[in-house]
Design brief:
Layout (H helix, E strand, L loop, with lengths): L5 E3 L2 H8 L4 H10 L4 E3 L5 E3 L4 H14 L12 E5 L2 E6 L2 E5 L2 E3 L14 H8 L8 E3 L3 E2 L13 E9 L5 E11 L3 E3 L1 H16 L4 E5 L5 H10 L6 H5 L5 H11 L12 H12 L1 E3 L3 E2 L7 E3 L7 E2 L4 E2 L5 E3 L6 E3 L4 H21 L2
């Protein structure tokens, strides 16, 4: 858990905040609330109950124990400065507070309430907002593409973002899942924000997949040239699901059932290229409704990182996803939320305590 897992704000700024409330402190915090965590082989931490509700119930319960008054539903339409502090108002009425924490989320999964209105509130109080777009989001492929017919097939791959001339921009490894609309899985979600940002700068960039990263080109070539009468599909099936192996042979124009040794040199090269550098004709992504986080937001340069207080509006603090910070899949965005929330809450508590 460090700044290398995040994009958006400067690494130094992100590191400064993460250091204030790290993973051990998160684990201890939830343990005090009665939420025991277990570490999986992947390194990920989950409640021993295996229920997200356990985390929610613990947080809400702790807030109520601390004397917090929860008003829900209570839509906030405006936040405006006044002589007595900040006036928070909406259809249900208004209240005045010396400190307001804007923890509205971004634009991802708007049905949960994070519909982007927080950005309007921040702008009205003098902040700027960088371009926002979906991150950690499934990617789409053209209608009728062969991979869309492989719905449910999952495999560990390496995704490579490159220029049209072949210059490698970024490579990520992990599990890829074929879906009825295109591609998903951890490695696709992690790559999505980088693909989107790269395409915005250069529409000709390509996303390619190496389906057998453990073999590489030379290893795959040797596999196809190994003695025996087995066809290419059978040989690939030792490393890939059969449906995918068959589809890749079809894409390469190779008879996958014929003995691999019978392939011409040109056909074998084409198959190796198809399997190790398969260009994905990505048409877009599934949008904010399916994105796990929002890229972009209020720049960290407009926030005092020691308190998460606004540099332009006294009394305002900004935390979590509304900031221009987005992390990889796997709990990183949760940790950013915990850390920024701790920094803001601690600063406000210290101020109010005198």
């Amino acid at each position: 858990m460090d700044e290398r897992a995040f994009a958006g704000g400067s690494p130094n700024a992100i590191r400064k905040v993460l250091r204030r409330f790290d993973v051990p402190e998160t684990v201890a915090f939830f343990a005090e609330l009665g939420v025991a965590l277990v570490r999986e082989e992947t390194g990920k931490l989950f409640p021993t109950t295996d229920r997200a509700r356990s985390v929610l119930d613990a947080l809400v319960g702790a807030a109520r124990t601390a004397g917090v008054e929860l008003r829900h539903p209570w839509r906030v339409e405006t936040i405006a400065p006044s002589a007595d502090g900040l006036v928070v108002a909406g259809p249900a009425g208004a209240l005045v507070a010396p400190h307001v924490v804007l923890a509205s989320g971004g634009r991802s999964v708007p049905k949960t309430g994070s519909d982007g209105h927080g950005y309007a509130l921040a702008r009205a109080l003098g902040h700027t907002v960088t371009h926002t777009f979906p991150a950690l989001v499934p990617l789409t492929l053209p209608e009728g593409h062969a991979l869309r017919a492989l719905r449910g097939v999952a495999v560990d791959v390496t995704l490579v973002l490159r220029t049209a001339t072949g210059k490698r921009l970024l490579g990520l490894g992990g599990s890829l899942l074929c879906t009825h609309t295109g591609l998903s899985g951890p490695v696709v979600l992690d790559m999505s924000r980088h693909w989107r940002a790269a395409v915005a700068d250069d529409p000709s960039v390509e996303l390619a997949v190496d389906w057998v990263p453990a073999l590489g080109r030379d290893g795959l070539d040797a596999l196809l040239l190994a003695p025996g009468s087995a066809g290419a599909v059978r040989r690939l099936h030792a490393h890939l699901p059969e449906r995918l192996a068959r589809a890749l042979c079809e894409q390469a124009g190779v008879d996958g059932s014929a003995p691999a040794l019978a392939l011409t040199r040109a056909a074998r090269r084409t198959l190796v290229e198809t399997v190790t550098a398969f260009v994905l004709p990505v048409t877009g992504d599934r949008g904010f409704d399916h994105a796990e986080v929002t890229a972009g937001g209020v720049p960290l340069t407009e926030i005092r990182l020691e308190t998460m207080a606004s540099r332009v509006q006294p009394g305002l603090h900004l935390v979590g996803e509304i900031c221009d910070v987005d992390g990889r899949i796997g709990g990183y965005n949760f940790q950013w939320a915990w850390a920024t929330g701790y920094v803001a809450g601690n600063a406000i508590g210290t101020t109010l305590a005198g």
